[in-house]
């Protein structure tokens, strides 16, 4: 009978093979008292075990560097450093000498203390470092007890590796010819083994629980790392089903991967920009990995959140510069501070508002608290020479707000130039369209900006007068409603007439139902989560803009979201 | 002895890479190098010690150097505390 274990999908893909149970023996060492005269020899024995472990780790490091590059091998440099760390090595040596105990027990106690300390840390990533300490220490222990670590480099048939946990060094040694994937009892998406699996493109599930130990080596398993499922001893029917899924998955993955270096072009040859949204510097890796055409929205709120004081100009400058440099000349749209509404900043000490979504938020707040705004603008202007910077103001309702924001920006630019600080003269300045009043007045705005970016989440909420956090009115979140589409159409047309471009940075921009209509309406830039970029690039490649321009016109004349959805589905079916 | 306080700006805080670079650099100096966050003071030549501070973006940390070549150490190590690392 098949049994299904569920866990966290750590690295996508499907593998079908026999299970291979793997683990390191970790017996609790016995505490032995040694004679005064023996402490020197015991210390030497410990040093020798450390030396042997260093040799092994150095080999793993070199192997990882060859297979995955210097960056992935860095973790093992960190391991080598642990073996020189005074808090681990010197403390163990002191313990042997002072307490006159055996090396095994001294190492065991010191390791536990360090691991406990790390596991108490608030930061999940730091807690994960406990795994590194255990890995290194376990390897030294293996030499002390005369049972060196087993390695996964010696698998002899195709297997799915099942383990309590895999240390970074275990994962690095996986023989990819035979290891088709792995499942571990513990771990999270940020475990080193999970990160490693993603870069090896090896399907993996973590956190399937203690039942992992009940799977005997040799049992056939299906590892469905898309769904986070491990099917133990599957039926013939399940096997057939999954062989099909696996083939389809691999074909699609190869196809999407091939698209990552390609331009985004519609079937009738119209060039588009498919960009990604980011909230922090860490998100950049995914943006680059998925071959996005740029960053369409950098939410700068994260810089201000989770801390107790405002970020300085210098700090912001370095971050913006870093993002621009990383994107290497591709467009980066940075949105000025959008705080208020559902995003609060305790240290800003804003008065409580009864309608925060309709209150002093985003640009309204920045115009009120100009010190804040000017600091951010100076940081942006200084960073502008590092790449293709676009600055975008959120939550504009009326022209005077835009003019005031631009005036302040101009003042800061002139100040910087007078101080002799270079500022790029090709910064594009745009605004978000998320308030219906701005959409209706887009013609006037278009003359005074370089671009529009439509923020659909707020535009829908304000058009429908429905709080998007309120479940009771969730049915009013209707992105394909003709009223929303008509507003979007007005904005795009206004921009076109003035010779400006229009982007979109809400969830709708990556939605496969919305994309054909938006393309037809003439949207130029679509900014979405990085993972949606390649599927979207594949989709637009199948769509003719000319054809969808006619369809979009029909859709805009409809009366409800349901009709529009049905219409798009029908048209897509005949593509 | 010299001390100076810095704010960490690396977005994901002080993890493997920044810690490695910092400790590696610190061990090149003969002087004593310590980091102080709140009431906790650690030997900054130990990566475990440094990790135990749990330095996050926005954290204030005081660098204390004492001994030979301390001025040089303060300058080089201070820059490492306020740097964005590529990950």
UniProtKB/TrEMBL annotation, chain A:
GO cellular component, as recorded: cytoplasm
List of residues binding phosphoenolpyruvate: 299, 335, 457-458, 468
Enzyme Commission number: 2.7.3.9
Segments forming domain PEP-utilising enzyme C-terminal: 254-543
Gene Ontology biological-process annotations: phosphoenolpyruvate-dependent sugar phosphotransferase system
Pfam families referenced in this protein's UniProt entry, alphabetically: PEP-utilisers_N, PEP-utilizers, PEP-utilizers_C
Residue ranges of domain Phosphotransferase system enzyme I N-terminal in the record: 6-129
Domain PEP-utilising enzyme mobile positions: 156-228
Alphabetic keyword roster: Cytoplasm, Kinase, Magnesium, Metal-binding, Phosphotransferase system, Pyruvate, Sugar transport, Transferase, Transport
Swiss-Prot/TrEMBL catalytic activity: L-histidyl-[protein] + phosphoenolpyruvate = N(pros)-phospho-L-histidyl-[protein] + pyruvate
Cofactor(s) in the UniProt record: Mg(2+)
Localisation: Cytoplasm
Class of enzymatic activity (EC top level): transferase
Residues that coordinate or bind Mg(2+): 434, 458
Entry GO MF terms: kinase activity; metal ion binding; phosphoenolpyruvate-protein phosphotransferase activity
Active site (record annotation): 192 (tele-phosphohistidine intermediate), 505 (proton donor)
Major location category of this protein: cytoplasm
UniProt family annotation: Belongs to the PEP-utilizing enzyme family.
Function field: General (non sugar-specific) component of the phosphoenolpyruvate-dependent sugar phosphotransferase system (sugar PTS). This major carbohydrate active-transport system catalyzes the phosphorylation of incoming sugar substrates concomitantly with their translocation across the cell membrane. Enzyme I transfers the phosphoryl group from phosphoenolpyruvate (PEP) to the phosphoryl carrier protein (HPr).
Protein's UniProt name: Phosphoenolpyruvate-protein phosphotransferase
Gene coding for it: ptsP
UniProtKB/TrEMBL annotation, chain B:
Keywords assigned by UniProt, alphabetized: Cytoplasm, Phosphotransferase system
Location, primary (coarse class): cytoplasm
Keyword Metal-binding: no
GO cellular component: cytoplasm
Keyword Cytoplasm: yes
Domain HPr: 1-87
One Pfam short name: PTS-HPr
Matching InterPro entries: HPr, HPr-like, HPr-like_sf
GO aspect biological process, one term: phosphoenolpyruvate-dependent sugar phosphotransferase system
Compartment(s) of residence: Cytoplasm
PANTHER family reported in the protein's UniProt record: PHOSPHOCARRIER PROTEIN HPR, PHOSPHOCARRIER PROTEIN NPR
NCBIfam families: PTS_HPr_family
Protein name: HPr family phosphocarrier protein
């Amino acid at each position: 009978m098949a049994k299904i274990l569920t866990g966290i999908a750590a690295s996508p893909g499907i593998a079908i093979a026999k299970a291979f149970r793997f683990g390191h023996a970790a017996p609790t060492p016995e505490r032995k008292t040694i004679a005064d005269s023996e402490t020197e020899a015991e210390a030497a024995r410990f040093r020798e075990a450390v030396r042997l472990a260093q040799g092994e780790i150095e080999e793993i490091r070199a192997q990882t560097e060859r297979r995955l590059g210097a960056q992935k091998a860095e973790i093992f440099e960190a391991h080598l450093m642990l073996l020189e760390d005074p808090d681990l090595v010197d403390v163990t040596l002191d313990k042997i000498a002072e307490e006159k105990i055996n090396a095994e027990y001294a190492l065991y106690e010191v390791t536990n203390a360090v691991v406990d300390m790390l596991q108490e840390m608030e930061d999940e990533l730091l807690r994960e470092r406990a795994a590194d300490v255990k890995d290194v220490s376990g390897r030294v222990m293996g030499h002390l007890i005369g049972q060196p670590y087993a390695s996964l480099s010696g698998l002899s048939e195709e297997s799915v590796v099942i383990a309590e946990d895999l240390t970074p060094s275990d994962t690095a040694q996986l023989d990819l010819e035979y290891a088709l994937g792995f499942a571990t009892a513990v771990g999270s998406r940020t475990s080193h083994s999970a990160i490693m699996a993603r870069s090896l493109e090896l399907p993996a599930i973590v956190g399937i629980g203690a039942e992992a130990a009940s799977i005997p080596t040799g049992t056939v398993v299906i590892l469905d790392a898309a769904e986070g499922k491990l099917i133990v001893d599957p039926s013939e029917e399940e096997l057939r089903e999954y062989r099909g899924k696996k083939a389809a998955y691999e074909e699609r993955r190869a196809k999407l991967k091939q698209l990552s270096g390609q331009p985004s072009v519609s079937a009738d040859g119209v060039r588009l920009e498919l960009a990604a949204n980011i909230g922090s510097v860490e998100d950049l890796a995914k943006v680059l990995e998925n071959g996005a055409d740029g960053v369409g929205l950098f939410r700068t709120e994260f810089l201000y959140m989770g801390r107790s004081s405002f970020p300085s100009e210098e700090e912001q400058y370095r971050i913006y510069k870093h993002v621009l440099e990383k994107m290497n000349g591709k467009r980066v749209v940075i949105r000025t501070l959008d705080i208020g509404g559902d995003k609060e900043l305790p240290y800003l000490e804003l008065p409580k508002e009864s309608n925060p979504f309709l209150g002093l938020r985003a640009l309204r707040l920045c115009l009120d608290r100009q010190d804040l705004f000017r600091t951010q603008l100076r940081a942006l202007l200084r960073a502008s020479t590092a790449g293709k910077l676009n600055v975008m103001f959120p939550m504009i309702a009326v022209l005077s707000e835009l003019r005031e924001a631009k005036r302040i920006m101009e003042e800061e630019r002139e100040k910087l130039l007078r101080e002799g600080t270079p500022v790029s003269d090709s910064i594009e300045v745009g605004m978000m369209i998320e308030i219906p009043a701005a959409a209706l007045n887009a013609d006037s705005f278009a003359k005074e900006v370089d671009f529009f970016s439509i923020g659909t989440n707020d535009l829908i909420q304000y058009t429908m007068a429905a709080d998007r956090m309120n479940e009771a009115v969730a049915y009013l979140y209707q992105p394909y409603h003709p009223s929303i589409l008509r507003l979007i159409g007005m904005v795009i047309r206004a921009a076109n007439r003035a010779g400006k471009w229009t982007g979109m940075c809400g969830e709708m921009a990556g939605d496969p139902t919305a994309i054909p209509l938006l393309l037809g309406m003439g949207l130029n830039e679509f900014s979405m989560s990085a993972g949606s970029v390649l599927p979207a690039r594949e989709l637009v490649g199948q769509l003719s803009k000319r054809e969808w321009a006619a369809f979009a016109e029909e859709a805009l004349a409809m009366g409800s979201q349901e009709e529009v959805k049905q219409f798009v589905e029908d048209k897509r079916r005949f593509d | 002895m010299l001390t100076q306080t810095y704010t960490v700006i690396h977005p994901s805080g002080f993890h493997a890479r920044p810690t490695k670079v910092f400790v590696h650099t610190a061990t090149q100096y003969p002087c004593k190098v310590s980091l102080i966050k709140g009431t906790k003071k650690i030997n900054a030549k130990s990566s475990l010690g440094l990790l135990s501070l749990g330095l996050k973006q926005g954290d204030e940390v005081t660098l204390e150097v004492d001994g030979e070549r301390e001025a040089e150490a303060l300058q080089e190590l201070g820059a490492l505390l306020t740097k964005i690392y590529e990950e």
